[in-house]
Amino acid sequence: MLYIYLDESGDMGFNHDACSSYFVITALVCENRQTTKKIHYAVRRTLQKKVNHGKNCKRKAPELKGSATNTAIKKYFFNQLEDLLDWKLYTIVLDKRKHKASFGVPGNVDILYNMLTIQLLEQINFADYMMTSLIVDKRKNKKGMDDFNIHLRKDLGLLNITHEDSIKNYGLQAVDMFCYGIARKYERDDTEWYSVFQKFIYLEPEFQMKKKTAPAM
Question: Residue 212: is its pLDDT beyond 70?
Fold first, then answer.
């Protein structure tokens, strides 16, 4: 069984100065259950030994976040995964400055998110697996989640899609760590953390508009 954890970094806004210039979606792809267990353990251990450890730790962090941990903690987390072979990262990068005319209007955010996700997951070979489990960080309301599931199953045939709270899912916390590093590369030209795990990035394309999928204006 193939396990895919999906997360994003940046925002979907287009029309004010506080918006990010890039939006990144990243998929952590694990080829078997044993690999997912080891990744989950690495997250749990990092939280216990580094984030929520010590007498001075008065407030326990509920989850591991790329934006809330320093590089030393990130490397501690990654060192537990470096010798694993059965995982890869796939990511897609949206340069919002190039697509403002198409998506910088109300109502197109969910359309764009679904398009990005489909274009990213199209690059993953599902044919060799009996089942694919896609776990998505819960960010949509029920209607948004239902629309997302319908579009992905129509285009990709994914049968098992769940939307989960990242606090309760270590796989989503793991992909958050990597997605943050990729986003920092584009948004801030900061590759300190990115360069540590870069060898595990299998694909890193920029989003390309397809005429047949462009939203109606």
Answer: no
